[in-house]
């Protein structure tokens, strides 16, 4: 195992591997249980590729009953389970454990119901994010949250990570676009939260489940809101000679009461990498680039374009283009959407961070990141969901150089500390996973953490579902409330807690 400290594998479970695999084979089709080392290899990592670990065994259930039977068996036999969608998580949320069953949900790949009258669709969790839009676009509808990974990532993964994208500034994150889920608990019980209706009775358990990173249950069905595609959309591509000027433009657009469909920012290293990759005419002399998209009825869009243009010019825009066609608008976005692979071409490895700050703190954080870049002697390219204050610094490193991965990780951790210091949070949309797990005490005190763990215990008191993720240390559910945790250091550290 490379990477962070994970729960000590349960030697007893590993010794019983043959018996566990045989039992799983009685519950699932032959091809739905994968246990040969070669076939397990593709599952050893998710999008956080620096860390990898072969799972005990992989299962690919096809029905809710199969999910329930497997979870009930694992609960009864003290076997851990890691749920997995498409494996694109950038925070190691789907990182396997040596003593855990990895449950892939990718056979749950059907659209079950499209209800245009109620403006929603019911889908299985393995349907890709883009697959939902593809299923409804013939009638002029779409699913709004659009992570850059939308061609590959699953809606189940989106629910678990509360994923976002370019259009979430105006249309909300996953949590604002999911109306209901069906979920199987570790006990095998099947629960339904929410549904086609707009509000649910009782506690907002749906809100709790969205963003819970596979720690509370395995989602087997998702009801999503679908929206009518906007009548028109146009975009501005604006270059500035400083990130401060671009940041000020963002703040003034929002202050003017304009909520763009998307408002993204890239710094110079990201602009150069993206332009070299997609060649769509990004201004190579700009220090910062803004892409602002306005959508709605044509008359409204025309007026808003003029207003944003005026704000950008008053902040010293050095280049300004307005898309004249849909093809040109898509070309403006092409570089931003391909920013990650573009950066992948200029550096052997990169480490993508995900912090969120109050918009006004952007200049301060950018200066801080520049200083950290010099301190750690590592380059950093930046793309931002500027309207949301969600930063994606991409730290460039070469894993073949001894110590460079560790330096990149420390650099990333310092960026997140900086985000928290200016009033922001550790993650915007990629989740905590294992990547930011040990930074949780920077953000939450012992009381907060204990309460979050009580929620986990209410759903999974054996701590069998996705352990080692999100919480810096898991405590036995019974001892909650009697623990003193200071900066992640707990008493009786030698006590096995996972
Ligand atoms: C190139 C690239 C670009 C990206 N861009 C964005 C972006 O713009 N915005 C964004 O938000 N994210 C982005 N991501 C991150 C990632 O795509 C999202 O977090 C996505 O939601 C993960 O979905 P997945 O199906 O791959 O889930 P996985 O990676 O398989 O799993 C992620 C988490 O969800 C849990 N999980 C998965 N399925 C279920 C289920 N059915 N029930 C319970 N838990 C489950 C897993 O246990 C894990 O904790 C990007 C990733 C890449 C590689």
From TrEMBL:
One of its GO terms (molecular function) is FAD binding. Gene3D superfamilies: 3.30.465.10, 3.30.70.2740, Vanillyl-alcohol Oxidase, Chain A, domain 4. SUPFAM superfamilies: FAD-binding/transporter-associated domain-like, FAD-linked oxidases, C-terminal domain. Keywords: FAD, Flavoprotein, Oxidoreductase. InterPro entries: FAD-bd_oxidored_4_C (IPR004113), FAD-bd_PCMH (IPR016166), FAD-bd_PCMH-like_sf (IPR036318), FAD-bd_PCMH_sub2 (IPR016169), FAD-linked_Oxase-like_C (IPR016164), FAD-linked_OxidoTrans_Type4 (IPR051914), Oxid_FAD_bind_N (IPR006094), Vanillyl_alc_oxidase_C-sub2 (IPR016171). Residues 51-229 form the FAD-binding PCMH-type domain. Its cofactor is FAD. Its EC number is 1.-.-.-. It comes from the Bacteria. PANTHER family: GLYCOLATE OXIDASE SUBUNIT GLCD (PTHR42934:SF1). This is Putative FAD-linked oxidoreductase. It comes from Hartmannibacter diazotrophicus.
